[in-house]
Structures are given as C-alpha cells and as structure tokens.
Amino acid sequence: MEDLQRSLTVLSDPQKALVRKLCSLGQSHLFAKWPCNTSPTSRRKLATQLQELDEAYADGGLEGYINNAKRLLSDSREGVNPLEGWEPSVPEGERFDLGTKEFEETESTGRPELGKVGFVLVAGGLGERLGYSSIKVGLPTEMATETCYLQYYIEYILAVQVKYGEGKRLPLCIMTSGDTNEKTAKLLRKNNYFGMQKSQITIVQQGQGVPALMDNNAKMVLEENDSSKIVTKPHGHGDVHALLYTHGVAKRWLSDGIEWLTLFQDTNGLAFHTLPLMLGVSKKLDLIMNSLAVPRKAKQAIGGIAKLKHQTTGEY
C-alpha cells in the first residue's frame, strides 16, 4: 500500500481519494501494476476515466454501482425473485384490428395531434449482427430506392410537418453513442440533413457506459492490452430520458408548444404507420405514457407489457 501511495503523486486530490475508496471496495487489482511498471501518463489516464465513470453514475457514483452490483449478483446467486410481492395484470389500453370502425375513429382522433409531436430517435447501435459495420440508421429500409432509415424518418416528419404542423417546425432529437455519434452527424451533413433545417435536430450522446465486471465480487475489468483503460458496456436505451432532461430538450420543446414525445428505435420504420392511432389512444385515455406492441403468444421469446401492483404497499 505504501508503494501505491507514492504512485498517486501524479493524480489530483479527488482522483487520489477515488483510488483509495476503490481499493477499500475490493478494486485494488486495478492498480496492482502502478508501483512498478506504469507511466505517470497511463496512471492519469486510468484515474481520469474512473473519475468520469464515478461522476456519470447517478446512484452514488462507482461506490453505489459496485454495491448495487454486489447485491444484485448475490440475489441472482441465491435465487431471489426481484418481482416478489408484485402482482401482474393487463395494463390500461386498447387493442385494435385494422379496418374496424374503432381503428378509424381513434386514428382520426390522433391525426391532428401529429402537429404537436417531438420525435426522439434512439440510435446508439451498429449493425454488426446484421453483417453491416456502420450505423443502423444508415441501413436501407428497402432495396428499390435504398432509402436509409434516417432519411425515411426525417422525410416522414417533414411530411407530417407540412400537413399538420400549422407553420411550426417539428423537432427531432437523436440519441447517439460513442460508436455512432460522428457517423450519424456525418450522414446528416453529407445529405444536407435530408431536407430538414439543422436547427430542428438535436443530438445527445450517451456516456461511455458502466464498468464491466469480472466476477460475483463485482471486480471491474481492465482492457486486455491496455491496463490504463476500464472495459465499459453500454448503459442501455433508458439513458435517453436522463439526456432529454439534462440537455434541456424536453423543457425547450414544451415551451415551443410540443405536447407529445414519440420515442422510436433506429430500425423500426413500420412503427410510424400506427403513430396516429397511438396518439388517439393516448389522448382519449389521457395517458401520460403509452407503449405500442403486437400481441404476444404464450412462450414466445419476446418481452411483454404488464401492469404491476405490489400486494403489500399498493405501489404500481
């Protein structure tokens, strides 16, 4: 420990305190090479990344992350059911068949609401699983015109803007990641934003994620060929809500007269076909949040949407 203390002299005081705290939390392996064969530059690099990760994790920094991970890993190992005490039920909503009177009436209710929508595209992924090395929003929606998803989305928004916007420009926010940020911006610039005004588009970028863990003791992992860098993994699509808040996007849109947010995935062009219907249901039932889904068959390997109520507390 004395040798480690001497190697901390190149760090700032907050970084020194963080390294000591991490050692007390079982992360001393991250600094095992520091006293003997690491350069001041590599030590500062690792300490800086750790500091950024600490500041980015809202629930208690890295200490909270490690403690949460240990608890969850322990619960998993012991077979603890995280939904114990919660009773599922069918959530409030509507089910429609195409072409019915109810479908057409609800869609008619939602159509005028299209002019009050802000669009949020979650676009943090690459198309590697599809055999495509670049951003998924650059993939073609179909092969006749090879219109890419980003172009399709923007042209849809512009069409809605013309028909229902009443002179108002409808905004688009794109959440990117470190993998997709520059490529997304480049695709937009190269194509002159596909006809949309640059000022209509806001790009918010996810952070570097959260540290990967090597075992049930929640030990963080160093890159195999770079001991000055922590392996991180994406934090998930839920980041979009925090980013809309921290970047002031939601507040700005509200002041501009936007009443609805629609959040959609990078390669789900078909979802827009039912947007008027979804808005109609949301308006009719006065919903704060609404999700669109297709019917799930029993044992089908897809997620389900349910309403959960705690049997003891009554919490939803």
From TrEMBL:
It comes from the Eukaryota. Its EC number is 2.7.7.64. It holds the Pfam family UDPGP. It is an enzyme of class 2 (transferase). It catalyses: a monosaccharide 1-phosphate + UTP + H(+) = a UDP-monosaccharide + diphosphate. Its cofactor is Mg(2+); Mn(2+). Gene3D superfamilies: Spore Coat Polysaccharide Biosynthesis Protein SpsA, Chain A (3.90.550.10). InterPro entries: Nucleotide-diphossugar_trans, UDP-sugar_pyrophosphorylase, UDPGP_fam. One of its GO terms (molecular function) is UDP-N-acetylglucosamine diphosphorylase activity. GO terms for biological process: UDP-N-acetylglucosamine biosynthetic process. Keywords: Nucleotidyltransferase, Transferase. Belongs to the USP family. PANTHER family: UDP- GLUCOSE PYROPHOSPHORYLASE, UDP-SUGAR PYROPHOSPHORYLASE. This is UTP-monosaccharide-1-phosphate uridylyltransferase. It comes from Phaeodactylum tricornutum (Diatom). The lineage of its organism: Eukaryota, Sar, Stramenopiles, Ochrophyta, Bacillariophyta.
